[in-house]
Amino acid sequence: MPGQLQHDDLHAIWSQPCAPVLDAQSWDAIDQSAAAIDRILQSGKTVYGVNTGFGLLAQSRISAEKLGDLQRNLVLSHCCGTGPALDHHIVRLAMVMKMAALARGYSGVRRPLIERLIDLIKADAMPVIPAQGSVGASGDLAPLAHLAAATMLGVGEISIGGKILPAAKALHKLGLAPIELGPKEGIALLNGTQISTALGLDALFRAERIFDAALIGGALSLDALKGSTAPFDPRIHAVRGHPGQIRVAEILRRLLDGSAIHASHQGCDKVQDPYSLRCQPQVMGACLDVIDQVRGGLLIEANAVTDNPLIFCDPDEQADSCISGGNFHAEPVAFAVDALANALCEIGAISERRLALLVDPKMSGLPAFLVTDSGLHSGFMIAQVTAAALVAENRMMAHPASVDSVPTSANQEDHVSMATHGARRTIEIAKNCATIIGIELLAAAQGVDCHLPLATAPTLAAVHQKIRAKVPHYQIDRYFAPDIEAARQMVCDGEIGLS
Predict the structure, then answer these.
(1) b or e along 424-442 (b: 16 or more beta carbons within 10 Å of the residue's beta carbon)?
(2) CA 93, CA 454: separation in Å to the nearest integer?
(3) Domains and CATH numbers, the chain
């Protein structure tokens, strides 16, 4: 039902095509909201977004015979997006969230608009939406205009089955025709945070997989480096109290349980490990708390009504209200993706530090750069350089987008969130982070190999086996980029998980 999407629902929509169905209660709410618009127009009231211009032009009253033109013109004039097209699965998420938001019955749109969105979602026919051009208030105007123009007006492009067609041709292929927009419908389609939220969810779902793989990589590295599990003692973390820290320590204990490598160095004279090993619960636990908080915030936003103005109707008393507000302002999304960007940066940064330990014979006790006959062979030397380069890129991108408001629309929209490009850059940080973790996993697996015949913990051994099924042991120097790509893809696909 609209307003009740759960995390697993959104993840499923992100992962594969879907076929949404609305209940009778939702259709009733849609009809009542559309009827309220008719009553408001018949009353002769001047209402923003219904019979006025937009933004700074809100004082311009539009005559009744031109209200359809007003909405069409609004959509076309706002199709100012630029840059590469958003990924198909991100657009699918945005389409479902836009449909669900409109179906809650506060937007004043008619049934045909909702039915059109549902038809295209079921056909997995997604409008082609340029990624750039939104400041995250009044919502995602430019990208949502491209969504509306293609799906409703047949202007622009639509992707079906991997093929991009002119929108009018795509609609005809699906047995559909352009829709003439009614009062309030154009602005209802354009106002909202569905694009920035879809981008934020994409970054979140990536981060969830990366986090799991990073914890596994950290445990595998610790075992390869003969690190201590004493810092994971539950008593340490209980007295601090942070839930993420407590959970991460428990997971690390479970991952390392039963390791013959670990058992082999009990009673050694090493006092403490470097922070990148010892402080994993504190660092990764804090990251986990951020991910949990972001998940909750984006879930609220995914179910929210974020267009403007909003219609509150009471058909019994004829007490309809059309209230202008600011639910389109994407500040909650902007803060969420900024926080997620920082967490991902830290996940990658601490992973690279463990990788640096693994390749340094003075710190690891392993062969230099994890390869025998080093000197003749460079082993993981430049793989660590690649990881360091990606860490540096992530740091550069991690500057918070939410603090960089630039006034727009002749100062009517004088404070904006920048959530949309903040979310896009968080996705790029996540992609870099997946590569860093992939490299660490390869290096940690190589380090574990150096301890044979001693075996790592059973859970970690299963991960090691997955890695070795795709990437063989590094015996002599070879063309390494495909190995890194294979490991990165395993992280991105969720193959290295905790479940």
Answers:
(1) bbbbebbbbbbbbbbbbbb
(2) 47
(3) 7-192 (1.10.275.10), 203-492 (1.20.200.10)
Contact 323, 310 (CB under 8 A): yes
Rounded to whole angstroms, how far apart are CA atoms 326 and 89? 28
User: Rounded to whole angstroms, how far apart are CA atoms 191 and 371?
Assistant: 57
**φ, ψ of residue 172 in degrees (nearest 5):** -60, -40
Cα–Cα distances in angstroms (integers) from residue 106 to residues 29, 31, 188, in the given order: 8, 10, 9
Q: Are 399 and 393 in contact (CB under 8 A)?
A: no
Q: The tokens of 266 are what?
A: 């009990």
pLDDT of residue 56: 62
What is the average pLDDT across 38-58?
76
Contacts of 35 (CB under 8 A, 6+ apart): 313, 315
What token pair was written down for 48?
């923003």
Instruction: Using alpha carbons, select from 408, 418, 266, 254 the residue that is nearest to residue 334.
Output: 418
The answer to whether the bond into 178 is cis (omega within 30° of 0) is no
Question: Cα–Cα distance between 355 and 470 in angstroms, integer?
Answer: 20
User: CA 384, 435, 399: angle at the middle one, nearest 5?
Assistant: 95
**DSSP letter assigned to residue 367:** P
267 has a pLDDT exceeding 80: no
> What pLDDT shows up at residue 453?
96
| Phi–psi pair at 453, nearest 5 degrees | -85, 0
Phi-psi region of 40 (alpha: psi -120 to 50; beta: other; left: phi over 0): alpha
Task: Collapse the DSSP code of 3 into the 3-class scheme (helix H, G, I; strand E, B; otherwise coil) and give the result.
Answer: coil
Annotated catalytic residues are 48
Confidence of residue 317 (pLDDT cuts 50, 70, 90): low
Mean pLDDT for the stretch of residues 22-45 = 91
The b-or-e profile of 96-120 (16+ CB within 10 A means b, else e) is bbbbbbbbbbbbbbbeebbbbbbeb
- Which of 314, 264, 325, 321 minimizes the C-alpha distance to 456? 264
Query: How much of the chain exceeds pLDDT 70, in percent?
Result: 97
